Amino acid sequence: MITSVGKADPRYSELENGHNLRWPLSAADAPDSIELCENAEDVVSALQRIVDSGRRPTIRSGGHCYEDFVCSNPGGALLDLSLLTGDRMPQDGERYRISAGTQLGDAYLDLFKLHNVTLPGGSCTGVGAGGHISGGGYGLLSRLHGLTVDWLSAVEIVTINQNGKAALLFCDKNTNADLFRACCGSGGGSFGVITGFLFNTLPRPPKEVATGGVSFDWAGMSEARFVDIVMKFGEYWQTRGKDQDTWGLYSGLELSHSSGGHFGLGIQFCNPDGTCGDLTVMNEYLERFRDCHPIEEHVAVPGAHIAPQTSAKQRPCPGLRSVNIVPWLEATVRGGNGRRSRAKYKSAYMKENFTADEAKCIYKHLKTPVPGVKEGHPILAVGSYGGAVNQSGRGEGTSIAQRSSTLKLQYQTYWNDPKDDAGQLQWMSDFYTDLYSGENVPSRFAGTPYPGKHYEGCYINYPDKDMLAYPFWPQLYWGDGDLYPFLQGVKQQYDPHNIFHHAMSVRPKQS
Amino acid sequence: MQPNNLTRRALFAQICCGSYLLAGSREAKFEYAGGTDRIEVYRRQGAHSAKVQTVMSANPSFLALDQVRQRLFAVNEIGEFEGLPRGSVESYTVSPGTGLLTLISREPLSLSATRPRSLAISPDGRFMVVAVYGGGAHNVLPVGVDGQIGRVTQVLKEIGCGPDPKMQATAHPHSVVFHPSGKFVVATDFGCDRINVFSFRAGRMTKIKQIGAPAGSGPAEVYLDDRGLEAVVQHRLGSFRARYKVEASA
Hints:
Chain A is an alpha+beta fold. Helix content of chain A is 24%, strand content 20%. In chain A, helix 7 (223-238) packs across helix 10 (356-367) and helix 10 runs antiparallel to helix 11 (421-435). The radius of gyration of chain A is 22 Å and the shape is globular. Chain B is built from no helices and 20 strands.
C-alpha cells in the first residue's frame, strides 16, 4: 500500500528531512508529498502516478544522502523506500536478496543468523541498502572482501520507458547487462528506482575481530610529529598494507580538528581466515606508531559511532588495553547512525602516501579556528583502502573507477545552528582547495584530487556539490576513461526522459 | 548581422533570422535582436536600423516584449547554469524614450530544465511560462511588479516521443502562448507532435487537453487568433502551417 504524506499531514515535518538537516535548503525546496511504498508494485504505481502528473521523483531508502539530491525537490514527490524491507528470496531460493529499504545493520544481522554470510558494506548500521550499494558499498571488510558491488549478481529496478510507462526490470550480466553494470557503483538516482539487490554468493564474516586503537593529544603536537604520524600511516598502506596477509586489517586515522583536543587511530583486525589467534600483523602495525607517543584513551573505534560498552564476551589484546577482541557480529552491529545534524562532506582517493607538504597543509587547517563558528566537529577521516578492492579483475563489470587507491579520505563537519553554515562550509572549502592545489595536481585541475599518479578522484557516495564548479566533475567521480560515456549511454537507453536526476546524476549526452 | 523582417504582432513577435530572433516594439521604433552571446538594440531610421546598444547575454534565443509594462524578457537557451543542468531567463527594463535595456534579474530554471526555447508572459504581467525544449518540461515563474523574476513555482514534465528518432526521441516543448483571458496556455511539443492546452489559475498550470498533430510534423511556433479560439501552428519538420481549434472556453 502506498501512503502519501502531503504537507498538511502531521507526519510530513518529520519525514521531510533526511539525516543531513541542511536539506531541504528552504521550505520552497521541499517536495509536495512523500510517497511511502511497501513493495516493488507500490513503487511502480507511485512512480507512474508521479510521472503522469508531470512531477519529479526523488528516491530515499535510508535518508543519508549528504547533498540535497533527495530532500530538495520543489513541487515534486519524494519516493520513500524505507518500508521496503521484505528480503524474501527469489523462487530459486539460492540467492540472497536485500531490499532497497533494508538498513545495513538489519542486513548484517539477518545474513549472519540465516546464512553465516555478510556484505562488505559500511559501518553506519542505519544507512539504507538502496543508496549505499548503488554507490559501491564500502566498509571495514572491503580490504578483505572487496566492495559490496563486487558481489552483486542482479538488481531489480523500476524504470520509465520512452512511452512514459513504469516497469520493474530484472538486470544482471546477461539481461539488461549495461543497466546492471551502471547499477554496480555509479551512484543512486540516475537510472531508476532500485527495489532489490541479489547476490549469488557472499563472503563469510570473520568469527572475531580485534577492535580499538590509540589516540594522539593535540596539546604539544608539533608540526613535525603530526607529519610523522600521517606519513607513517600512509606509508604502511602503500607498502606492507598491499600484502595479502594484511587485508584483514582496517585502520582509520581520524584527524579531528585541534579544538577537539585529540585525534585517533582506530583499527579493526582479523587474519584472512577470520580469526584473531595470531595478532602479529596488527601488533607490527601499531608498533610503527610507538615513537609517536600514542595514548590509550579517547580511542576512536572503527564502526562504533556510539561509545562501545564493555562486553562480557570481549577479551583484551596482550599488551594493549585499548584494543579488545570481540565477536565480529557484536563489533559490527554496535555502530549507529550518529545523530541528525547539519553537515558537510568531501572526499578524495589517494594512490600514494601523503607528501610532507600535504601533511603540513592538513596540520595547518586542523589548527585553524573555524571562523565565526560557535560549535562543530570537523574531522578528516583517512581510511585504509585497497586490498581486495584493487585485486585484478574485481572492477570489471562494475561502475567503480577507483581500483588503485590505498587511502580513502572523508572530510566531515557537523553542527546544529544554521548561522554557522557559512563558516563551516568556508573552512572546509578552504582546507580542501588548499590541499589539492599543490604539486601533485596539474594546474588545470587545481583544487581537486583529479585522477592521476597521486590521486584517484572522489567517491560518489560522499558527494560534494562544490565540485560542480569544475566542468570536469564527472571525471572526479567516474574517472577520465570510458566509464562516464558508458553511463551516459545507459542513461539514454533506460531513462530517455531524464526522469531521474539530481545535481550530480549522470547527465544526458546532450543536455 | 543586421536584423530585418520586423513584425508588429504583439507579444509573440518573434521571427527567426539566421541566429537572430527579433522582437518589435509597438511603434516598431526599436528592435531587439538576440544573438549567441548578446542582445542588440536597434533604432529604426526609415528603412534602416542603427545599433544603439549591446547587452551581453547567454544565448538569448527568444525575446518577448511586454509593451504594457515596458519590459523585455529573454530565455537563455543554454544547457548549464551555475554548474547545474538548467537554463535561465532574464528580465530587462526598456527605457521609454531611448529603448535601451537595463537588466532587472536573471533567474535559473528548474533542475534539468535545459535549453529553454521560448516563454510567454501572462496578460496581467504576473507570470511567465517557459517552454523547456532540452529538458522536456514547462516552468512557471512569477514576475514581480518591479519586473523581478521569482524562483520557479511549478515544473511540469512532458513525456513522449515522435517518429523521427533523432529530432523526436523525447518531448521538446517549443512554444507557449497565453489565451487573451489569461486563463489558458496553449503550447506546442515539437518532440511529441502535440498541441497541449493548459488551464492557468493562480499561477498554476494544469493540462486539460492534448491535440495530436500529424506524426513527424514537429509543431513549433504557435499563435492564437484574436479571440483565442484557434491556434495557428508552424510545423517545422513538416514545413507547413495548420490551424487547431483550442476550444478553451473562458
